[in-house]
Amino acid sequence: ATAAPVAPAAPAPAASAASPAGAAADPASHPGAVTSPMVGTAYLSPEPGAEAFVTVGAQVKEGQTLLIIEAMKTMNHIPAPRGGTVRRILVEDGSPVEYGAPLLIIE
User: Fold this and answer.
1) What is the total count of domains within the chain?
2) Torsion angle of C-alpha atoms 51, 74, 76, 104, degrees rounded to 10
3) At residue 7, does pLDDT exceed 90?
4) What are the angstrom distances between the C-alpha of 14 and each of 4, 7, 30, 77?
5) What is the tens place of the pLDDT at every residue in 22-66?
6) What is the chain's alpha carbon radius of gyration, rounded to the nearest angstrom?
7) Of the candidates 58, 99, 51, which has an alpha carbon nearest to the alpha carbon of residue 78?
8) Structural domain containing residue 45
9) Which residues are CB-contacts of 107 (< 8 A; sequence separation ≥ 6)?
10) 3-state secondary structure 17-68
11) Do 16 and 48 fall within a single domain?
12) Which of 3, 8, 14, 81 is the most buried (most CB within 10 A)?
């Protein structure tokens, strides 16, 4: 009799625990996500060894360059779609990005 109540209870916490993890694992669904407009290579600074365009906690203005995506040898500056605070940077310098991939989160 005790096994029956325990079994349904066990999946319920697991499911609720999976939901926040799932939300955290999918930053693209975050309302503040800035997504990649193209496939390419992400660069967080204007040149190797230079200071990054933005850091976590930085205040940004609409239109400010957040990072560069290189596509077909062209450096494309990715502007902030809105002002706010950079909460997370989701790509590493020099990493490949896909179209629609979340790059960072601004709140």
Assistant:
1) 2
2) -70
3) no
4) 16, 11, 22, 42
5) 445 578 888 999 999 999 999 999 999 999 999 999 999 999 999
6) 19
7) 99
8) 31-106
9) 32, 84, 85, 87
10) HHHHHHHHHCHHHCCCEEECCCCEEEECCCCCCCCCCCCCCCEECCCCEEEE
11) no
12) 81
Same domain? 41 vs 75: yes
Walk across the sheet containing 74-79 and list its strands: 74-79, 65-71, 40-43, 96-97
| CB atoms near residue 52 (< 10 Å) | 15
Residues 89 and 57 in one domain: yes
Residues 9/21/31/95 CA torsion (nearest 10 deg): -160
Same domain for 72 and 98, yes or no, is yes
55 and 97 in a single domain? The answer is yes
Which CATH number covers residue 58?
Answer: 2.40.50.100
Provide the whole-model pTM. 0.74
Q: Is 20 in the same domain as 37?
A: no
- At 78, list the tokens: 């990715």
